[in-house]
């Protein structure tokens, strides 16, 4: 560790007083009466190139460790790690979740966008009811950190993305929908239930038609409604499509729907995320408590 050093200006004054045969007590007395005191300063240890290289190697990755663990592994202080990060032009940024998009999804969206636009043009979007199902669970951290380091002058934005697919941990599923006229009721799916076309028709579509539709579209306006659901197997099965055709539901056909589109699926890309964000602020220990907070 470097020794404490005296400012060269004050050191010169002390040497000059010693040459004039001043005693140590007299020199200390002069210093006490002086407006400028002798200041002892400890030089900040310079970070060696090897230490800087080690820190950069640890942070310049997709899933970096904490500054505390970096300091412990490099045998330096946490403040030194923070100083190296700033001096090497790295900044800490939060990661964002985005939907994984395949080349097939991109192709389908390009082919179907115009057709869906014509279906919802001339204010027909005001009669659009979009529905979706989502899993809710107690723990979903998956061991991934929600922050990463990027360079200011050459940012790697791919690090800020956490890709997620359709897989979900165990919990319960719920169904809901929104429209410009209001929201539908929330319907929960019991854990372990097989979601087939019969279940979807009996427990989702029929309650929607008998309870939600008359409330959202009163006075005989039910025929104006344009219904949407995703392309889950139970939603696009022959039995489900036959039931919707029989009841004369005006719906978005599977070949008209743009897959994984934030602009077209508000439940999947906005409402569910907002609800889960709100639930994360609550102290929930059981699935029953989680279900109660969803309502």
Automatic annotation (TrEMBL):
GO terms for molecular function: nucleic acid binding. InterPro entries: RNaseH_sf (IPR036397). It comes from the Eukaryota. This is Transposase.
């Amino acid at each position: 560790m470097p020794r404490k050093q005296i400012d060269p200006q004050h050191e010169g004054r002390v040497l000059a007083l010693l040459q004039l045969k001043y005693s140590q007590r007299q020199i200390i007395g002069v210093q006490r009466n002086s407006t400028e005191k002798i200041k002892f300063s400890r030089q900040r240890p310079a970070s060696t190139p090897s230490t800087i290289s080690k820190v950069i190697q640890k942070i310049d990755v997709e899933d970096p460790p904490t500054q505390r663990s970096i300091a412990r592994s490099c045998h330096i202080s946490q403040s030194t790690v923070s100083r190296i990060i700033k001096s090497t032009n790295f900044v800490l940024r939060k990661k964002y979740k985005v939907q994984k998009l395949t080349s097939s999804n991109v192709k389908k969206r390009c082919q179907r966008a115009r057709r869906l636009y014509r279906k919802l043009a001339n204010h027909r979007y005001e009669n659009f009811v979009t529905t979706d199902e989502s899993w809710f669970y107690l723990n979903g951290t998956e061991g991934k950190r929600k922050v990463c380091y990027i360079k200011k002058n050459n940012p790697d934005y791919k690090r800020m993305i956490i890709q997620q697919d359709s897989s979900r941990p165990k919990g319960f599923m719920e169904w809901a929908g929104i429209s410009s006229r209001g929201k539908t009721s929330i319907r929960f799916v019991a854990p372990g239930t097989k979601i087939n076309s019969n279940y979807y028709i009996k427990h989702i579509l029929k309650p929607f038609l008998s309870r939600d539709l008359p409330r959202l579209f009163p006075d005989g306006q039910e025929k104006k409604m344009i219904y949407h659901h995703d392309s889950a197997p139970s939603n696009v099965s022959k039995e489900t499509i036959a039931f919707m055709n029989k009841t004369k539901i005006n719906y978005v056909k599977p070949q008209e729907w743009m897959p994984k589109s934030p602009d077209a699926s508000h439940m999947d890309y906005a409402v569910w995320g907002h609800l889960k964000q709100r639930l994360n602020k609550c102290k929930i220990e059981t699935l029953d408590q989680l279900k109660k907070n969803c309502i």
